[in-house]
Design brief:
Length: 184
């Protein structure tokens, strides 16, 4: 089954949430690269218009402009290790402005064009963008795995809530080592 690694929102803004997951994401990325499997990145951000009242974007309404990521800002940049991978390998970067990486983007088209049938999701935040995007992939007909130790968020409670909800009704929650074994 043709599989893609979807690395969600590994941006400077979220650095504090990535100490546990970043090494596993790098391991997964290396494995996918070495086996010539697709890797796709997402990058979350808001335009100046979205950050200016009246707020039309629901995330900006929820978090306010100071809690939102402005496109082009230093917080919006991909983390250095992730930026290097995406640039060196000409991997697609999907720009998004909501939790679901399929909404207002061409992610579905990118996956379909590449013949992808399974999506392995990792990144940040487990319970927001990762979980929402993984559920959306499942709802679009992709087999979907969410990688526990390659996702990060603000707290253990939030992390576990995202994984539990996804694992109950949508797809498998796996550890990095299990993903590597299954994709030999």
């Amino acid at each position: 089954m043709k599989t893609a690694l979807l690395i969600v929102d590994m941006q400077v803004f979220f650095t504090s949430m990535t100490s546990r997951c970043l090494p596993n994401i790098l391991t997964l990325s290396s494995h996918f690269h070495n086996h010539s499997f697709e890797r796709i990145f997402t990058q979350h951000g808001h335009t100046k218009e979205e950050l200016t009242p009246p707020y039309k974007n629901q995330l900006v309404k929820k978090w306010g402009p100071s809690g939102s990521i402005a496109k082009g800002s230093s917080d919006w940049e991909l983390m250095p290790d992730i930026a290097k991978i995406s640039a060196d390998n000409d991997c697609p970067v999907i720009h998004k402005n909501t939790y679901d990486a399929f909404i207002n983007t061409n992610l579905a088209e990118v996956l379909i064009k590449r013949g992808i049938q399974r999506v392995v999701v990792c990144g940040v935040m487990t319970d927001c963008c990762c979980d929402t995007t993984a559920r959306s992939a499942f709802n679009r007909g992709f087999e979907t795995w969410l990688v526990d130790d390659a996702c990060g968020t603000a707290s253990k409670k939030q992390h576990e809530a995202g994984l539990n909800g996804f694992g109950y009704a949508f797809g498998e929650v796996l550890q990095t080592e299990e993903v590597l074994k299954r994709l030999q």
